[in-house]
Amino acid sequence: MGLLTVIRKQKLKDKELRIIILGLDNSGKSTILNSILDKPNTDISPTLGFEIHSLQHKSHNLNFWDIGGQESIRTFWFNYFFDKFDYIFFVIDLITINSRFNEIYNEFIRLLENERFEQIKLIIILNKMDLFDNTDSESIKEEVIKKLELSRYLVKYEIVMVSGKEGKNIDLLLDKII
Ligand SMILES: Nc1nc2c(ncn2[C@@H]2O[C@H](COP(=O)(O)OP(=O)(O)OP(=O)(O)O)[C@@H](O)[C@H]2O)c(=O)[nH]1
Ligand SMILES: [Mg+2]
């Protein structure tokens, strides 16, 4: 293989980004992904395994891995780390953030403490903002950061509030990637 071919191949590879979408069942992972892909959110049902979808965005090829969040499937989340990901989308449902907080916290910490996590950029997505009265998004974000005890971890993250259903802030979310 000539040098030019190698360089060209490497350049193509540089433009591939892999994003894994994790979060509890019903948090809205597949709905958000549908919005990203500009697909209608009519027949949404729980993801039983995983689905991979790609999107060409700003000259990058984004590969999204949408993983089911039901408790029985969560143990398999970490199998997917064998492949290298560039980003993790961790989706939290704002409506059940208090009632399901222990579950959210446990899965989140399990993720942060995974040895393969270090290389991956974390984007925390607070979903279902359309159902939320409180419009002071900055204070909500701060509260979540505090509750998740993010300051205890040397981890870089972005946090964004969206409505997967209404497509709100989905452009902002994509801007966090590239
Ligand atoms: N109001 C509102 N409902 C949403 C939003 N996002 C998702 N939902 C609803 O929440 C439910 C679960 O959405 P899914 O996208 O299937 O959730 P999921 O995280 O993929 O669930 P699993 O695949 O089981 O892990 C569906 O009834 C969606 O219509 C949102 O932004 N606003
Ligand atoms: Mg799903």
Automatic annotation (TrEMBL):
Stored InterPro entries: ARL2/3, P-loop_NTPase, Small_GTP-bd, Small_GTPase_ARF/SAR
**UniProt xrefs under Pfam families:** Arf (PF00025)
Q: Which GO terms describe its molecular function?
A: GTP binding; GTPase activity; metal ion binding
Which spans of this chain does the record mark as coiled coil? none
Q: What SUPFAM superfamilies does the annotation carry? A: P-loop containing nucleoside triphosphate hydrolases
| Positions of GTP binding | G23, L24, D25, N26, S27, G28, K29, S30, G69, N127, K128, M129, D130
Q: Which residues bind Mg(2+)?
A: S30, T47
PANTHER family in the record: ADP-RIBOSYLATION FACTOR-LIKE PROTEIN 2-RELATED
Recorded hits in NCBIfam families, A to Z, give:
small_GTP (TIGR00231)
Q: State what protein this is by name.
A: Uncharacterized protein
- Origin species: Wickerhamomyces mucosus
